[in-house]
UniProtKB/TrEMBL annotation:
UniProt xrefs under InterPro entries: 4Fe4S_Fe-S-bd, 4Fe4S_Fe_S_CS, FrhB_FdhB_C, Polyferredoxin-like_ET
Protein name: Coenzyme F420 hydrogenase/dehydrogenase, beta subunit C-terminal domain
Pfam families on file: Fer4_7, FrhB_FdhB_C
Alphabetical list of PROSITE patterns matching this protein: 4FE4S_FER_1, 4FE4S_FER_2
Lineage of the organism: Bacteria, Bacillati, Bacillota, Clostridia, Eubacteriales
Species annotation: Candidatus Flavonifractor merdigallinarum
Amino acid sequence: HLCTPAVCTGCAACAQICPVGAITMEEDHEGFLRPVVRENCILCRKCEGVCPQLAVGSRQGPAAEAQALWALDDTVRAASTSGGAFSLLARQVLDQGGAVFGAVLEEGRTARHVCARTWEQLAPMRGSKYVQSAIGDTFRQAKTLLDQGVHVLFTGTACQIDGLNRYLGRSYDHLLTCDLVCHGVPSPAVLRDFVEETERREKKRITALSFRDKSHGWGKAHLTLTFADGTQHSAPLYETTFGRGFGMGIFLRPCCAKCPYTDVQRPADLTLGDFWGLDAKLELPTRREAGISLVLANNPKGKAALRMLEDRAGQVQRPLAEAVAGNPRLASPSAPSPKRAAFFATLRTQGYAAAEQQFLTPPPLPYRAASKVLTPGMKDVLRKILK
């Protein structure tokens, strides 16, 4: 009796807790990983006990205030999506001989959670991944390390952290968790299709993808593709077909439309994001365009972790309301696209190129300009004439 597909987040806590390996995570018709129960199930019901959607999860907060944070090391900051908060927290754990769990993007097309024990292994975890990551067995790996007394930092979406908390079933003083301000998780299959269609058009292989290339500035997100021949192609994220679909919410996981984590009651010790909405009149002893992280300390452990960064980070305390105003996903879920079902139906029957052309490619500029000034009645008359 697992949770229904409509609310399943794909956190994989059920698959990892199963003592006989009877649950596997498999892609559904939209490309999202879902648990499948095999015949060797022994009806122990441990899977039901760890599912965050079948029971009340561990929620904390709200934080009393928000922190605007940036790494003092310009190299760390430049390599990070915003201000470098994740890298600083990870460095703190690695310096203690600990382990950091986070998502990496392999060859620009597949995101999965891995464990890093060195600064070099950590590098691919930096940067936004606008696709759902496969958790794999990282909850099990984290528990093994925690039981050995190893310090662990585990980062992920709020639903993944809630799944981890329920899987562990207890608190650990040497575990620090970070969830993310999340717009919603796109289908892994759609990202693969986008990459493969781009390779087909360009006639060369993509080896890396950056969703938030900061070379054009923090507030000017660019999607940058790196090809096997060393060349790159960069464009404003929301002018690419994948970025446009992400912004529309047309290929997000179904549960994202009713996400229970889009508020300031968080499952993690810390919440990380971009500090959009930071008062423009606020004078900071740093360059905003280099990136500013938003950090919410949701409990005493989170506050203690922030204090440990005082010699490596600039920090300014800000009202929580300011952070919420600039990050709507701290107040409500992303609105579902009314074209979602049609998009996936076209993707399934006609392929990505057709779905991209029909749903993700804007009409020519004259049509877009006309749509802003014509009344609905005038548009109906024009449609009849054009037919």
